[in-house]
Structures are given as C-alpha cells and as structure tokens.
Specification:
Radius of gyration: 17 Å
Helix content: 25-40%
Number of helices: 8
Strand content: 15-25%
Order of helices and strands: HHEHEEEEHHEHEEHHE
Distance between the termini: 22 Å
Number of strands: 9
Oligomer: single chain
Largest sheet: 6 strands, antiparallel
Strand order of the largest sheet: 5-3-2-1-6-9
Length: 246
Amino acid sequence: MDIGGRAGWAVVAVALAAVMGVTACRPMSTGAHQPRHTKARKAQSTTASATASTAVLAGRGQPAGPGGACVFVKPDGAQKFGHVGWGFRITGTNTWEYGGVENPTNRLYTPPGGDIGAWHARGSYDRMLGDMSRDALPQALGSARAGGTSIPGKSTHPYSRYRCTSSSTSDVRAARKMIRTVESRGFLVGVDPRTGELTSRDCLDATYDVLKAYRTEDLTPAPRLYIPNVWVETLITWSDARLTPR
C-alpha cells in the first residue's frame, strides 16, 4: 500500500512532527495513542508449537495444518517503510484465502465505502504465492475468485518476501467477517476527521486484524500507526523466504 508522494508525507510531517516520527503505511505512535495491546507477545510455551515452527522454518513449504497464516511483504512500498498483505489456510484443507489493502489513490484518508484497493481471492498455496509474486492480482484473478471486490493494478513495488506459520487454532468464519470489515471501513493515516483521534486504518491494520480474527498463533501485536517493515521482523517464529515471480 502506498500512502502518497513526498507532498503527502510532508503534510503528515507538519501536522504530526511535534508528537511523532514519520513511518510506514502510516506514522508510528510515540505514546500519544494507546496500542490495541499493551502486553508483549508471549513466548512460545509448548514443545508442539516449537516443533511446528521449526518445521515451517526448515521446509519453507506449505505450513503443516490444520491452520496456517502468511504475511506478504513489499519492503520498498510506502516510501520504503513497507507494505503488507495477508493469507490464511481454510482449516484442514489445502485451500487458502489471501488479499490486502493497496490504497491505489495514495490518499492519506479515504472515507468508509471509498476505493481503497481492497481485494481478496481464494486458491491453493502455490496459486496464492504465484498471484502475490507477480502482483498479478489485477486482471488475472477475475471477479469470481476475487469475491467481486476492487482489484488494484500492477504495483511499482511487488510483493517480494513472505513469512508463514502453522497454527493449531483458526477461525475462518471470523476472518472472513473481518475481511468484509476492512474492505468497507476506508483508509486512514493520521487524524480521523470524525473523531479527532490520531490513528490508522491501513495495510498493516488490515493484515493484522484479519489474522488476529483467524486466531493465528504467534501473531505479534501491531499497534496503530506502526511501521510494517518493523512489525514483520517481530514474527520471529515464522518462516522467512524471498518471493519471486512464478
């Protein structure tokens, strides 16, 4: 997801410089906003969880079931602060659902119902990696696979990295409900014109909210106004691999 050119960032910098530094898909909180989670991510506590994570790290293939999740990364997106998308396994199957919020207008604020480049699709693990690696989300998916949502055009910065994990817990119904929520709630980086709150509703928020609703294990909290490239590095038990066009 892009948040606009240098002019857009300049506006945010002027408005927020007194209380924060400019960051990724959005500016990073410096304490003015209360994160949705205040406790640090719990360390792995079971041998089974550690074994599953090790298997994913070693194999770099489709995570062992019954559930699983992936985060796709455009490290050079959003002024090089990063952009992320998501994927999750339909429990007990080899089918995945995946998508993202691309913000093709590059605006810092788009009201609910506006075009935020939200999309989602469904397919095999390999199909998911192929679609994301080519940024082929555009014309190739078609309205049926994309669920009838808006599909963004080709991005200047393609998804080039992905991190995945197994998950013994999953809730596909809740994740799908959250997809509908993030696709309709608009886009924001900065001050919400309706509430005056300094917050965000961007690519990282969409990715985190969907995977949290899915009940993904070992999912690190993502406070509002946080840097995607920084957050991705906190997923220490997840696999980590390059994503090349396939």
